[in-house]
Design brief:
TIM Barrel; about 35% helix; alpha/beta; about 200 residues; single chain; 8 helices; 8 strands
Length: about 200
């Protein structure tokens, strides 16, 4: 399964050290999502990330920083995806970029451009990072529709939920609240426990 960690939307204590620790522990994909951060603030953070890890980062905002930092992964939140011509997405893919997006309705999977490698879908379970943000009742009732785009669950992901995600047709999951709302030791522990569980189920 694909395992993704999404950054805290706001600055957190020892953030850079915690990001590097996750990379050193085997984090394969890190989505840098800070919608309120300026381009300068994002630049300052990226400068501090060791170069060897930058290829594993997906940018949600300020995509033009990708070339400067050797980043090939670009994420398109739903509003940005809807506003971006397919021809532009195709051009980015041709240039070697790996594109991802966010989806909140099941039927949208079938409407996605083939340019996207995977989509974040959720919340699948009650959100940890956004109290009160509840899943749609449709999520656990049926498998997600088949499409060429891989499906990555987001929202309330914990170790014991991972087998259910496989049953519901997900190809992976993204961790957010459980990583950043706990202290750094517990966040890293949660990351490792989830990875061990999905490796066990294949």
């Amino acid at each position: 399964m694909i395992q993704i960690v999404i950054s805290s939307p706001e600055a957190v204590d020892r953030e850079l050290q915690r990001i590097v620790a996750l990379f050193e522990a085997g984090m394969e994909l890190f989505h840098l999502r800070k919608s309120n951060a300026s381009e300068l603030e994002l630049t300052q953070l990226l400068k501090e990330v060791p170069e060897d890890f930058r290829e594993k980062i997906a940018l949600h905002q300020h995509h033009r920083l990708a070339a400067r930092f050797g980043i090939k992964r670009l994420h398109f939140p739903e509003k940005l995806r809807m506003a971006t011509p397919v021809s532009q997405l195709e051009s980015l893919k041709t240039q070697g970029h790996i594109l991802s997006t966010s989806i909140h309705k099941r039927e949208r999977f079938l409407q996605l451009s083939s340019c996207f490698s995977y989509a974040l879908y959720g919340p699948v379970f009650p959100s940890i990072s956004k109290p009160g943000y509840q899943p749609s009742t449709e999520t656990p009732l049926q498998k997600l529709p088949e499409s060429g785009c891989k499906k990555v669950a987001i929202g309330g992901i914990e170790e014991n939920k991972i087998p259910l995600l496989r049953e519901w047709g997900f190809d992976g999951y993204a961790l957010l609240g459980a990583i950043w709302q706990e202290n750094s030791k517990d966040g890293l522990k949660h990351f490792l426990q989830c990875r061990k569980t999905h490796e066990m189920i294949g």
